[in-house]
């Protein structure tokens, strides 16, 4: 998959990511904020991010989206979803 194939991207901490990934399109990145925008509620932010990215993908009629999620203790995971 190439960056231009991704229709929407959402990160928990987009400030660091945008600084180091100049190829990201700001029209597609964290358009409604990440987990930190909601106060990063423990145990809820992953579900919120996945639901938000899925809804935005449907709204924009996109095909793929990427979400990065905090999984506690300084760990993280990235998920690619496809709208079918």
From TrEMBL:
EC primary class: transferase
GO molecular function ontology, one term from the record: acetyl-CoA C-acetyltransferase activity
Keywords (A to Z) from UniProt: Acyltransferase, Transferase
UniProt key word Transferase: yes
Protein EC: 2.3.1.9
The UniProt record lists the keyword Acyltransferase: yes
Occurrences of domain Thiolase C-terminal (ranges): 22-83
Family per similarity comment: Belongs to the thiolase-like superfamily. Thiolase family.
The protein, known as: acetyl-CoA C-acetyltransferase
Lineage: Bacteria, Bacillati, Bacillota, Bacilli, Bacillales
């Amino acid at each position: 998959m190439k960056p231009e194939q991704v229709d929407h991207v959402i990160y928990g901490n987009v400030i660091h990511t945008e600084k180091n990934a100049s190829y990201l399109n700001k029209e597609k990145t964290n358009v409604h904020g990440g987990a930190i925008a909601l106060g990063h509620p423990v145990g809820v932010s992953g579900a919120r991010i996945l639901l938000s990215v899925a809804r935005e993908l449907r709204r924009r009629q996109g095909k793929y989206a990427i979400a990065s999620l905090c999984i506690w203790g300084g760990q993280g995971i990235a998920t690619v979803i496809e709208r079918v």
